[in-house]
Structures are given as C-alpha cells and as structure tokens.
C-alpha cells in the first residue's frame, strides 16, 4: 500500500505520513514499513526488500489508511431496538426495552435472521475488532459466532471478535433469566468449547474470534455465580472478561445493597477474582477514588461509551482522570444504550464529553495533571479508538497501530466528494492537510467514507465491496 497513512503513536501524538509504503505479507501481517518514499522510488524500495512483481495499491489524493477501529463494548442483540427508549434511565430501560428484545433470541431463527446484518453493519462502520455481548441463550450466541462462517466461508477471514453469552441468574424478568448457577455455567462452558474448537489462522497471534466471560453486571449475578465465573477465569488466564460497572447512580446504590460485605462496586468484582489485566469494564461513570486505585492496580481496562452515557442520562465519565491514573481506556458504542454502531460516533461524543468536563471545571483546572479536566485532543481520540482499544482487549501486540509484525487491520478512508457524504462537500476544492482530513473524517465521517475494511490483511467490507 502506498500513499497517505495516519498512525497513532501515543495519547499525545500520531504520525501523518504523506508518502508511506506498507508491505503486507500473505499472512496478513505487516512485513515492513518505509515512512517516506518519493513516488519515483517505490519500485526500487520494493526491490530492495525483495518484493519483486508485487502489486502496489496506490491511494489517491483524499484517501488515507488508518488502523481499524476497536469497539470494546457492544450488544449484538440490541441492534433491533437501536434508537428507541431514549426517555428512560438504565434500570427502567433494561426492563422496558432491552430485556423484552433480548428475550426474542430464545428463538434461534430470529437470531439467524438478525445477526448477519448486525455483523455486516458493524464491519462496514469500520470496526475491525468487536467485543460482543450476546444474550443468555447458548444457541443464539452460537449463531452469532457461526455468522462469521456464513459471511466469509472461513471465519478467521472475517472480523476480529470476542463473543460472550450473558450470565444472569437474579433480578431479571421471569421470561429472561437463567434458572440456576449450574445451567448458566454449563452454557458458558459450552460456548467456550464451541468457539475454541474451530480452526484458527496459523498466521494470527491468536484466533481471530474468541470467547469472553460476560457476567452481565453484578445486579443480575448471584455471589455463587460470580464465584464460579471467577474460578473458571482462574483456570484460563488468557480468557477475557467483560462486564458493566458504575454506569448509573441508582445502579450503584442497588449494587452496594446487594453486596454489603464488599467495599465498593469494583470491590465486589474483585472479591470474585474478576478484575484482572484482561477485564473490560464498560462505562465507569461514577467510580470512587478507591475504585480508580483498585482498577489501576489490577490493570483492568475501561470501555468509555459516551453516546450511551449521554443517551441514558447516566453521566459523564472522567476519562482524563483515568488516563492520568494510567488506566487503559478504549471506546465502546454500547448499542443500544448508544444509538450508533459506529466508533466514529463514539469518538465525537467522547470529544464532547471531555469538553463538558473541561467546561465544568474551568474555575478549578488541575494544572499538574496531563489529561484530567481537559478536552481530549484529536491524537487522544484516535488513540482511544485504535491502540487504546487494543490495550483494553489485551491485543496491543497484534493490532491497534501499524508496525512491523502486527496484523494489517486497517481502514481505507475516502474524504473526497465522490464518497457521497454531504457533510464534507465543498472541502475538495482547496488543498487539505492529512491532519485536516483526519479530523474532518473523525467528526463528519460515516460509513460512506470507509471504502475498504481489512482484517489480518483480508478485505472484509467497506463501500468498495458493496
Ligand atoms: N447494564 C447491564 N446491562 C446493560 C446493557 O445492556 N446496557 C447498558 N448500557 N448497561 C447495562
Ligand atoms: Fe452495555
């Protein structure tokens, strides 16, 4: 690939390379990168690396590559009710909107009819790695997984994903609850073996699709269930864990009443061995200082879901503060608490959320801190959507940025008029810097501006494939 490339470096910087040459081997991994190559030197540079008679994909003006987006938190079975129930806060929204929709996945045929278009839409939104919550149903969650087979013939050629079956054995409606710890654990183990038995891509560092433990949240899980899940996690250190934490104040109060012996909401998860370096904690809007210290110590990651936090009136998560504590942070769409499946929308709302906090604390800036109470920069937003998400998923050695040995998980972006996104019309006429095009894409772009989506070097979506 030859042309403009944007590569995240840190929370504070990214590289905007106007004439970059990236070599992707047939394994789908990046072989080498030369950051600045004059177009007259492309063939010579290829030859010097032993790349003879190899096709070069040349990007045009107004096109650039960025690493694929990582959605660290979404609910596949909530796509059918996306955009509804915005007037409720979390607990009422779960009861009135979410649980009724999720219960429909008891019917595997409904799952088959629904999940294919869900995954298709998320890929075309630019998400190359996705952390999915399914429902409590084993069969429907297996359908979500097998969907990768349907779409791509070989599942490992599709989207990179973590797929979990929700555990819920209390405080759930009678029509949508698991009857016992034993049933919940048996279904969880069955899903894990089902996903693990499929062949993996020998060139990928890890299987592209993996199971993930998914205790929905402390309210819907009894202590014996959380304890069994903690034991299962202990037997497999590589198994990721995902759950919700401290999203809504009524939820926090209810949780504390259910675990009076625990010091806090985070303390409850920790007491069952569920806080570890590959645990993904969604929301984290209302954490206490002690919980922040605990999560930092356990090296767990936070999935920031700002669209959902605004939409369900949950609050504004102090992401800058978490970053200053060295906590890993990625972005999540949290469909359908969030009303968009696109990480671009999460980026836009993460920016607004950080500005809300910066405005509220104007009289009280924290001069010694780097990120607390400040708005997130474009570099930070790009990082959270890519490299930060990779850290949260414990995949930082294989995805999240372009570097030698990592997988080529990438988006080819097109911000020219011919992409057909009216939000950007008019900007073709003048000269545009790569930094300017990136910012415009992050704030005004949508799936029309994503022409190609690659995972492990393989083209799996984007407008060019439709
Ligand atoms: N907490 C427990 N379940 C859910 C869910 O489905 N969505 C959100 N946003 N929060 C939750
Ligand atoms: Fe959620």
UniProtKB/TrEMBL annotation:
Q: What class of enzyme is it?
A: hydrolase
Q: How is the cofactor bound?
A: Binds 1 zinc ion per subunit.
Listed pathway(s): Purine metabolism; guanine degradation; xanthine from guanine: step 1/1
Domain Amidohydrolase-related positions: 64-459
Q: Which Pfam families match?
A: Amidohydro_1
Q: Which cofactor does it need?
A: Zn(2+)
GO CC: one term? cytosol
Question: According to the UniProt entry, what is the EC number of this protein?
Answer: 3.5.4.3
Checking InterPro entries in the record gives: Amidohydro-rel, Guanine_deaminase, Metal-dep_hydrolase_composite, Metal_Hydrolase, Metallo-dep_hydrolases
Query: A single Gene Ontology molecular function, please?
Result: zinc ion binding
Which reactions appear under catalytic activity for this entry? guanine + H2O + H(+) = xanthine + NH4(+)
- Which NCBIfam families is this protein grouped with? guan_deamin (TIGR02967)
Q: Which family is this protein grouped under?
A: Belongs to the metallo-dependent hydrolases superfamily. ATZ/TRZ family.
Q: What's the protein here called?
A: Guanine deaminase
**Species per Swiss-Prot/TrEMBL record:** Mycena maculata
């Amino acid at each position: 690939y030859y042309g403009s490339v944007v590569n995240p470096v840190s929370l504070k910087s990214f590289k905007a390379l106007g004439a970059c040459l990236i070599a992707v081997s047939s394994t789908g991994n990046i072989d080498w990168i030369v950051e600045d190559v004059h177009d007259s030197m492309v063939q010579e540079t290829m030859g010097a690396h032993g790349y003879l008679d190899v096709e070069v994909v040349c990007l045009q003006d107004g096109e650039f590559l960025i690493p694929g987006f990582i959605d660290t938190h979404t609910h596949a079975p909530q796509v059918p009710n996306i955009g509804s129930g915005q007037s409720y806060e979390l607990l009422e929204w779960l009861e009135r909107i979410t649980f009724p929709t999720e219960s429909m996945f008891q019917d595997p045929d409904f799952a088959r009819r629904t999940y294919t278009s869900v995954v298709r839409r998320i890929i075309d939104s630019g998400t190359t790695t996705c952390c999915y919550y399914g429902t409590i149903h084993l069969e429907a969650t297996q359908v979500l997984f097998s969907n990768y087979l349907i779409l791509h013939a070989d599942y490992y050629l599709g989207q990179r994903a973590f797929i979990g079956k929700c555990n819920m054995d209390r405080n759930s409606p009678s029509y949508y609850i698991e009857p016992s710890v034993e049933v919940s654990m048996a279904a969880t183990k069955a899903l894990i073996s089902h996903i693990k038995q499929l062949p993996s891509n020998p060139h990928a560092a890890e299987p592209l699709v993996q199971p993930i433990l998914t205790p929905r949240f402390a309210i819907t899980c009894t202590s014996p269930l959380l304890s069994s899940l903690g034991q299962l996690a202990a037997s497999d250190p590589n198994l990721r864990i995902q759950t919700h934490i401290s999203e809504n104040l009524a939820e926090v109060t209810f949780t504390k009443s259910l675990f009076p012996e625990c010091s806090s909401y985070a303390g409850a998860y920790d007491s069952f061995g569920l806080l570890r370096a590959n645990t993904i904690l969604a929301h984290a809007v209302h954490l206490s200082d002690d919980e922040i210290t605990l999560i930092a110590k356990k090296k767990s990651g936070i999935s920031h879901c700002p669209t959902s936090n605004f939409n369900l009136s949950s609050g504004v998560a102090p992401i800058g503060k978490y970053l200053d504590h060295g906590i890993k942070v990625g972005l999540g769409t949290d469909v359908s608490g969030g009303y968009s499946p696109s990480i671009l929308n999460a980026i836009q709302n993460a920016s607004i959320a950080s500005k809300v906090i910066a405005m509220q604390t104007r009289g009280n800036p924290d001069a010694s801190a780097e990120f607390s109470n400040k708005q997130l920069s474009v570099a930070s937003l790009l990082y959270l959507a890519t490299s930060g998400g990779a850290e949260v998923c414990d995949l930082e050695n294989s995805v999240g940025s372009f570097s030698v040995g990592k997988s080529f998980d990438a988006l080819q972006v097109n911000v020219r008029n011919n992409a057909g996104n009216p939000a950007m019309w008019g900007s073709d006429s003048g000269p545009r810097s790569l930094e300017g095009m990136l910012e415009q894409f992050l704030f005004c772009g949508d799936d029309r501006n994503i022409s190609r989506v690659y995972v492990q070097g393989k083209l799996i979506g984007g407008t060019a494939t439709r």
